[in-house]
């Protein structure tokens, strides 16, 4: 279940941050609309790594087909 809080809950940020766990971010609303997400640092790192991989795959796709060994070399795998 989503953990949704008003941004005003940041006044007591220690309590709010205790609710942020791996795979369970806290969504903050402002004026009743989603505005921010507070995530665990491990989740953030995983997200950024995933985005980097997607960007590399898009680049590889636009450059044409390559062998698996060549792809591994290009992406440091």
UniProtKB/TrEMBL annotation:
Domain of life, per lineage: Bacteria
Pfam families cross-referenced by the UniProt entry: PhdYeFM_antitox
Coiled-coil intervals: none
Assigned protein family: Belongs to the phD/YefM antitoxin family.
Job of this protein: Antitoxin component of a type II toxin-antitoxin (TA) system.
Protein name: Antitoxin
Organism: Enterococcus xiangfangensis
């Amino acid at each position: 279940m989503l953990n949704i809080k008003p941004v005003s809950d940041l006044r007591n940020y220690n309590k709010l941050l205790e609710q942020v766990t791996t795979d369970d971010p806290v969504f903050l609303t402002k004026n009743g609309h989603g505005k921010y997400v507070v995530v665990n640092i491990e989740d953030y790192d995983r997200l950024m790594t995933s985005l980097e991989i997607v960007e590399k795959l898009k680049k590889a796709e636009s450059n044409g087909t390559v062998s698996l060994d060549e792809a591994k070399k290009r992406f440091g795998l």
